[in-house]
Amino acid sequence: MSTPLPSPHVFDATEANFQTEVLDASFQQAVLVDLWATWCGPCKTLGPLLEKVVDSFNGSLRLAKVDVDKEQALAASFGVRSIPTVVLIREGQLVDAFTGALPEGQIREFLLRHVQPAEAAPEADAAPAAPPEEPEQAIARLQQEIAAAPDRAELKLDLAVAQMQAGNAEGAEALLDALPANLASDDRARRLRGELEFASALKDAPPLEELEARVARDPADFEARDLLGVRLLINGQAAAALDQFIEILRANRHWNDDQARKRLVAAFQVIGDEDLVGTYRRRMSSLLF
Questions:
Q1: How do 85-90 and 30-36 pair as beta strands?
Q2: Which of 12, 142, 143, 207 has its CA 20 to 30 A from that of 289?
Q3: Does the domain formed by 135-201 have CATH 1.10.10?
């Protein structure tokens, strides 16, 4: 019998790679941290179940394995009192945890409170995908599908995305606000919420040239710098926008209730350039940790 291939979603976390592979990476996809030991019986039961469930999330989640005997400093940083201890990290923060060996169903319920599985990759011999719909076409199709199946809440999320793509921010927001809790935390819903926040921030905002002039006169005019970053982002100048938010974070990380950090997190969700996002995510983490 052949040896199973290692899962691409499971890795060993150490003190050396924890910042990059867990904290930094958690801004892109959630990371489940399993604190375990070779001598721990419940750990041996829980470990394969965690790997199975994480694999079923199709890449929206990774599993970091921490051997507490080899990585005592990491275990101490989590305040581990018993093992197995499992913690979930998103956007550099611990959001939930449990101890002990839970059954597979409870593990899945724990994760679904915070993370939604990604769609499975298509088979290699699958038929070529159809050309993308125009937003107006998608809206018409989805409205018909919702009328035929009003209980399918995921269609309403699809419709909210299409409404935003068509420029109808109010319609998108109304649909988004009405979503059930499990879909409200979906990655697409989070991305859409970020887009809406940026669009809302520009209501009654000064034009780009005025904001640039204000920042040139007073680099500590964080209100102008913040709105300048939003305008640049909306205009497609992602790197220049992120520079504005990073500068606020560097100068005054707690300004306006940590708004620069929140802007960066929201921007990471709406920017499609993964390399750019990774670069600025690391810059943000270096200022926060």
A1: antiparallel
A2: 12
A3: no
Q: Please, what is the angle between helix 274-288 and helix 238-251, to 10°?
A: 0
Catalytic residue status for 270: no
Domain 10-112 CATH class label: alpha beta
| Selected catalytic residue, list 25, 43, 160, 228 | 43
Residue 40: active-site member: yes
Which residues are CB-contacts of 88 (< 8 A; sequence separation ≥ 6)?
30, 31, 32, 33, 94, 95, 96, 97, 110, 111, 114, 115
**Structure tokens belonging to residue 48:** 């394969």
Options 40, 61, 89, 161, the catalytic residue? 40
Which DSSP category does 266 fall into?
H
Q: Do domains 10-112 and 135-201 have the same CATH topology?
A: no
Domain 208-288 has CATH 1.25.40.10: yes
* pLDDT, tens digit, 9 for 90 and up, residues 83-131: 999 999 998 889 999 999 898 889 998 999 888 887 765 555 555 656 7
